[in-house]
Specification:
By secondary structure, this protein is an alpha+beta fold. It contains 7 helices and 8 strands; from the N terminus they run E-E-E-H-H-E-E-E-E-H-E-H-H-H-H. Strands 7-6-5-4-8 form a 5-stranded antiparallel beta sheet. It has a 3-stranded antiparallel beta sheet with strand order 1-2-3. The protein is globular and about 40 Å long. The protein starts with 7 loop residues before the first strand and ends in a 5-residue tail after the last helix.
């Protein structure tokens, strides 16, 4: 690991960011590479990091998908045309609720806009969340927007 930054390491000469998932799994992601590792990292513990980075770059609102107990289990951003964007793509709200990582959400009424400041501090309020790592997530914003034909 690099000195002073436990979230970075060198693997085969490529710099990678390490994101710890909600279950303790560590994901070594290549910054900006929208591959399976990135999809796993941003659907299994760091959706809030990506949502914060997308919000920062675009100003689009962050939307939390709640379960029936009103616990947020996944974050998206809402695009200007009303779709919900995460690492898996830009989805109509009804489609987003069919995604494996959001299927717990009982319906569109459980998709609630959340203030970025609250999302940034969610780990302090709920220890089941990891502290957001917006720095590594920023490298995925431009490739994600490009991949789905979006612009801020």
């Amino acid at each position: 690991m690099g000195r002073g930054d436990a979230s970075q390491l060198e693997l085969s000469g490529a710099r990678r960011a390490v994101l710890e998932g909600s279950d303790g799994t560590r994901f070594a992601v290549v910054p900006g590479a929208l591959d399976e590792r990135a999809r796993e990292a941003f659907t299994r513990g760091h959706c809030h990091s990506l949502a914060l980075a997308l919000h920062e770059a675009t100003g689009w609102p962050i939307v939390g998908a709640e379960d029936e107990e009103l616990e947020i289990c996944h974050f998206f951003v809402r695009t200007p045309d009303g779709r919900l964007l995460d690492v898996t793509g830009a989805h109509a709200p009804e489609e987003a609720l069919q995604l494996e990582h959001a299927a717990f959400c009982p319906g569109p009424d459980y998709l609630v806009e959340q203030p970025a400041e609250w999302v940034a501090g969610i780990a302090e309020e709920d220890p089941s969340w990891r502290a957001p790592q917006v720095g590594p997530a920023r490298s995925f914003v431009a490739p994600l927007l490009r991949a789905f034909g979006l612009s801020p």
